[in-house]
Design brief:
Blueprint lengths: L13 E2 L10 E2 L3 H5 L3 H5 L14 H9 L5 E3 L25 E3 L23 H5 L3 H4 L23 H9 L12 H5 L10 H5 L2 E4 L5 E3 L8 H7 L4 H6 L4 H9 L11
């Protein structure tokens, strides 16, 4: 089978796509997509001749993922007379900002790529969200939670979602939540979908391929009122959409551990 090539997808779904000739070193996401050129390492394995994102600083490490998991455009476009949709010329270990700029967003406007609050709503935009988050600011990396080589867990998480989150955010820990138990924080029973961290902090925002949903990666809780006002999916409405945002807002007002100033 001869695969068609193009400027929108192939730079991420291949290794070393050459824009002038459409040639690739390897189709699909091979080792060199995340580890950089590997011929010297294959001939003589050593730490010094391969990039391991785990040994890079957090910004450079995240760049290895953000190169494909973001919407933006090369700093130079068009290239060879064509517009490309990935950071042409970038390799892991290099500085992504020298090749790529993330899609701009004007607060308050809903666009093709963003909701009005700046949350991304298209496929492969986890990076656009993540760089806005407190997690990113504090040095968390994509592979702090995900294993790119694959796991049996949803989204290739290292551990099931709540187990993953509660390693850093358990009750009584410095990072919160500020409640004696997880159930006291979520106001939902143990084992229920409402007691899942991702239900509120990573709502499903966009169906992409078949029934696969991309989740928000800002980790910010979007209140029902804000969701209604800005037409953004909120965590509450993800489960209680039949009740309406006014009902959900009243429920939050009754939660003593939730600031009344942050409900609207």
């Amino acid at each position: 089978m001869k695969r068609p090539t193009g400027p929108l997808c192939d730079g991420c779904h291949s290794v070393n796509y050459i824009v002038q000739t459409h040639a690739v070193t390897e189709w699909n996401v091979g080792c060199e997509k995340c580890h950089g050129p590997g011929s010297a390492h294959a001939a003589r394995p050593a730490r010094s001749n391969i990039v391991n994102p785990a040994r890079l600083d957090s910004v450079s490490a995240n760049d290895a993922c953000i190169q494909c998991h973001s919407q933006g455009q090369p700093l130079k476009n068009p290239i060879e007379g064509r517009y490309y949709d990935w950071p042409v010329g970038y390799e892991p270990g290099k500085d992504l900002k020298d090749y790529w700029r993330l899609e701009d967003h004007k607060p308050g406007e809903t666009t093709f790529t963003h909701f009005a609050d700046g949350t991304a709503h298209k496929n492969r935009m986890q990076g656009n969200d993540f760089v806005q988050s407190a997690m990113y600011t504090h040095g968390v990396t994509c592979f702090s939670c995900h294993d790119v080589h694959g796991t049996a867990n949803n989204a290739d998480l290292l551990k099931p979602a709540n187990v993953m989150c509660l390693q850093c955010h358990g009750a009584g820990l410095a990072n919160g939540p500020r409640a004696a138990t997880l159930e006291a924080h979520t106001h939902h029973k143990s084992g229920s979908s409402g007691n899942e961290c991702v239900a509120c902090h990573m709502p499903a925002i966009q169906a992409t391929i078949a029934d696969v949903n991309v989740r928000a990666h800002t980790f910010r809780f979007i209140t029902p009122a804000e969701g209604e006002r800005l037409k953004i999916p909120s965590g509450c409405q993800g489960c209680h959409g039949d009740r309406g945002s006014a009902w959900a807002t009243e429920q939050l007002r009754g939660w003593k551990n939730v600031s009344p100033w942050r409900v609207e």
